[in-house]
Amino acid sequence: MFDDAAATLLAMPWRPELTIEEIPAPQRIAPQAVAIAADVDESGEEVGNGRLVLLHDSQGNPAWDGTFRCVTFARASVDPEMVADPLLAEVGWSWLMDALSRHGAEYAAPSGTVTAVSSQSFGSMEDDPGSAEVEIRASWTPILAEGRGIVAHIEAWQDLLCMVAGLPLLPEGVVPIPLHRTGRRR
Fold this sequence. Notes:
Layout: H1 2-10, E1 18-23, E2 32-42, E3 45-61, E4 66-77, H2 80-84, H3 88-102, E5 107-119, E6 131-142, H4 151-165, E7 183-184
Parallel strand pairs: 1-7
Antiparallel strand pairs: 1-2, 2-3, 3-4, 4-6, 5-6
Helix pairs in contact: 3-4
């Protein structure tokens, strides 16, 4: 089952704004794992990035409430005013929950954090522009019933990356056609 899920992840058709590459997966968290990294580009400029790790333990894991676990982070620069919004953390978390719901991805045991950070430079760096970022770190257990694989969870992750980076979601039923091949390194 893991091999099929990993192959699906690595062969996924991605939106053209995403550059995906396989990266080394963590070795000590689960007996089987696969990981990808993504850069989100708009008009030739990186506007966000993230990672998705798919973990599998055929014996199950009580903390996961299942045998699979999706672990992610998504990060993007945002307007400085957004960082000051006290609702940003709740909105950021809703981006993940909405993406999972939008794709009909069944899940259990979701957990995570939303972090908003602003930076302002001083002294000899005072001419450097300030920055503001939002970062979502999350994990959930995909419920992979017979005939319902990992695709809905991967599509939800893609939506999460795009929402964090400020890109519009694809209309319902539109399938992305990548303009470039994904890079894979081992």
